[in-house]
């Protein structure tokens, strides 16, 4: 009888733990990294201040992406951005990268409003580049998924500006 109850208890324990394991597994989502889906190979800074410091130190432009989780335009842009190899490679190698889901205290980052998505560049002299804009006159720093070539051009311009202005 002793053996029988030990066996029953073990089976019960196994059943409980495997159910628990399944419950835990179900809860487990992909870990939320600083990339937030914009590119896992890219090294992302955590704050605007850190971005400014790194830009100055490394002499690379800072790219700031303002977005929100529940914004469909942001999601669409994020997908296009993450899937574009040229953007990912440039972002990885030539830029200090930051994506933010909240506004910064720097009003220069919202010269024409606090809309999302918007992508702005800050050069290593810590100047926000108001001259690197997207295609839309009503929201100067917004990009749409079909604007990736335009964004690539602006990334290249941001890099050229550093060379010419130093």
TrEMBL record:
One of its GO terms (molecular function) is dystroglycan binding. InterPro entries: AGR/TXD, Thioredoxin-like_sf. Residues 1-23 form the signal peptide. Keywords: Signal. Pfam families: Thioredoxin_7. GO terms for cellular component: endoplasmic reticulum. Belongs to the AGR family. This is AGR3 protein. It comes from Myiagra hebetior.
């Amino acid at each position: 009888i002793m053996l029988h109850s030990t066996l029953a208890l073990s089976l019960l324990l196994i059943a409980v733990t495997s159910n628990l394991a399944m419950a835990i597994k179900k809860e487990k989502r992909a870990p939320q990294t600083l990339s937030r889906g914009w590119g896992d190979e890219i090294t992302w800074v955590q704050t605007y201040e850190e971005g400014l410091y790194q830009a100055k130190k490394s002499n690379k432009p800072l790219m700031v992406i303002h977005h929100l989780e529940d914004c469909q335009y942001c999601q669409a842009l994020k997908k296009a951005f993450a899937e574009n190899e040229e953007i990912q490679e440039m972002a990885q190698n030539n830029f200090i990268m930051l994506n933010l889901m909240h506004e910064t205290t720097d009003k220069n980052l919202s010269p024409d409003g606090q809309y999302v998505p918007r992508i702005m560049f800050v050069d290593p002299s810590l100047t926000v580049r108001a001259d690197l804009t997207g295609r839309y006159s009503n929201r100067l720093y917004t990009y749409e998924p079909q604007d990736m070539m335009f964004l690539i051009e602006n990334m290249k311009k941001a890099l050229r500006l550093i060379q010419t202005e130093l």
